[in-house]
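Hi Q.,

Before the meeting this afternoon, I wanted you to have the uracil prediction in hand. No need to reply - just skim if you have a minute. The sequence and ligand are here:
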Amino acid sequence: MRLDKYLSESTPYSRKEIKILAGKGAICVNGTIVKKSDVQVTEQDEITVNGEKIFYRKFIYLMMNKPAGYLSATWDDKDPVVVDLLSEEYKHFEPFPAGRLDKDTEGLLLLTNDGQFDHAVTSPRKNVVKRYFARLDAPAEFNDIAAFRAGMDLGDFIAKPADLEITEKPCEVFVEVSEGKFHQVKRMCEKVGKNVLYLKRLSIGELVLDPALEPGKVRELTPEEIEAFMK
Ligand code: URA
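Predicted structure with the ligand bound:
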């Protein structure tokens, strides 16, 4: 492929900027300065910009610790969206959320520009289990565990059986669901007479929210983490 295509897909630089960088002698292919950005390169070539090695990649896979107050969207005309929290380094890949969290929900959110990965994470057929921590306005009761386990009629759909785990503080619970319907956890809790005051997603399948990630921060998934969803 052309050098400017390779670099514009793998870095935040536009083709125009790459042309200027090449003209300045900032780009090397296999150790040799290349002054023209339309030369042909392959993924096997070693390409550097200002001495930094650039690996070719088309797709990006990010784990975000979503803060409250952001919509799980790429754009909105009034509210801030999770993509606003990304640096240019990631934004230029045009990632979108793979699955959604409500505006006031925190925790693990995945972003990608790979449709296949999005499908692997969100398709109802894949039955990926999502684990949440919830704080309720009233103590959860043992009967609620059975109600969650039985599957719940939520009016417009019947929720599949889910797990409710009551902690030492009965207003604090863990919920595991294998679907991702709109407001699902909140609606299931409401169905047993409790309002969710705080909600945080802790894991999606085997993938646990990285405890080192501050709210609003992202890190790339490892190849093993990506593979775990694709298999
Ligand atoms: N269930 C909800 O009610 N809200 C979320 O954000 C995620 C799951």
